[in-house]
Design goal:
Elements (H helix, E strand, L loop, with lengths): L1 H20 L1 H8 L1 E6 L2 E2 L3 E5 L2 E3 L1 H17 L4 E6 L5 H6 L5 E2 L13 E3 L4 E10 L14 E5 L4 H7 L9 E5 L2 H9 L5 E5 H9 L7 E13 L2 E3 L3 H17 L1 H10 L16 H8 L6 H9 L1
Parallel strand pairs: 1-5, 1-6, 9-10, 9-11
Antiparallel strand pairs: 2-3, 3-4, 7-13, 8-11, 8-12
Length: about 300
């Protein structure tokens, strides 16, 4: 029995290695490619209900899938798999999803487990509060309740900030970004610390957007990228080539304008977040530097 269990485990590990090395073969053989998507990651990736997902990163991934179809020589059935901050990396590793198109920060720790395409969004971590809140800076969080999403690094980033040294505050965790925003909306939390674009998107689609504001110092500047399996060079090459083509044609700037500066479905809410100089620069000079190196480059 023990020998049989060992053989089963070895077989499972072998399948995982196969996925890691050749996603293209996997999707060609199955005829299906599974896109990891987020239900409430601002306008990077969100649900319209049912099995329909849209957003800036979803649109880029759809372009990449068109090129993947050319590479494997067949039309693929595209499936959407909702992922969370907690399970997105395990689901990539075990073959459940083939490409992740959400709001994942590329950092050195995650690069040990997965690969990242070249940066397609640059995020600034800040905090959302109610419009009538007295919170204007990190120092104002003393004794307050801070919401963040399980599996994300935002509160860790806050605690590492020099301005937060010795600052005591309570943490509350939402299961996803909508749940975290609800903690502020319902008064259970005083602030929600998260990526600025996600905060802007959640505020724009809330019942009363004027009731909220984004405040405080920028806690960190982070590269956000599309995620693929570790050491899958062929898959990564196609995704990066797609991004390069979108930049060269100017289409990526049109996609950005569509999702960040124009009315978005289904409510017509406008995020109104112009493209940052940092993002324009990284699109002109593509790289997949992890956050630790990226932040130094941006600051220099």
């Amino acid at each position: 029995m023990l020998k049989k269990s060992i053989l089963v485990l070895a077989a499972a590990l072998a399948v995982g290695v196969a996925y890691a090395q050749d996603t293209l073969k996997k999707v060609k053989d199955s005829g299906t490619i599974t896109m990891g998507v987020r239900e409430s990651s601002g306008v990077l990736s969100y649900t319209l209900g049912g099995s329909k997902y849209v957003g800036y990163h979803v649109a880029i991934c759809e372009k990449a899938i068109e090129n993947i179809e050319k590479a494997v020589g067949k039309k693929l059935n595209v499936q959407f798999q909702p992922v969370t901050s907690q399970n997105r990396i395990p689901l990539m590793q075990n073959g459940t999803i083939d490409i992740e198109c959400g709001s994942t920060t590329n950092n050195a720790t995650r690069q040990k487990d997965v690969s990242f395409a070249n940066t397609t969004f640059v995020e600034e971590v800040r905090m959302a509060v109610k419009a009538n809140s007295s919170i204007k800076s990190i120092a104002d969080l003393k004794g307050k309740t801070v919401a963040t999403t399980t599996g994300t690094t935002s509160v860790q980033t806050l605690r590492k900030n020099k301005r937060a040294e010795g600052l005591e505050f309570k943490e509350l965790f939402g299961k996803d970004h909508s749940d975290s925003f609800l903690l502020v909306e319902s008064g259970r939390a005083d602030a929600f610390v998260m990526d600025g674009s996600l905060l802007a998107g959640l505020i724009a689609r809330s019942k009363n957007p004027k009731d909220y504001k984004i405040v405080g110092e920028v806690l960190s500047v982070e590269p956000i990228a599309i995620m693929t399996r570790k050491d899958d060079a062929a898959m990564l090459k196609i995704v990066n080539a797609t991004i390069a083509d979108l930049v060269k044609s100017g289409e990526i700037f049109k996609l950005y304008d569509k999702w960040f500066m124009q009315p978005t479905v289904p409510s017509g809410a406008v995020v109104n977040l112009p493209m940052s100089d940092a993002l324009r620069n990284v699109l002109k000079h593509p790289n997949n530097l992890p956050a630790e190196e990226f932040a130094k480059k941006v600051a220099s």
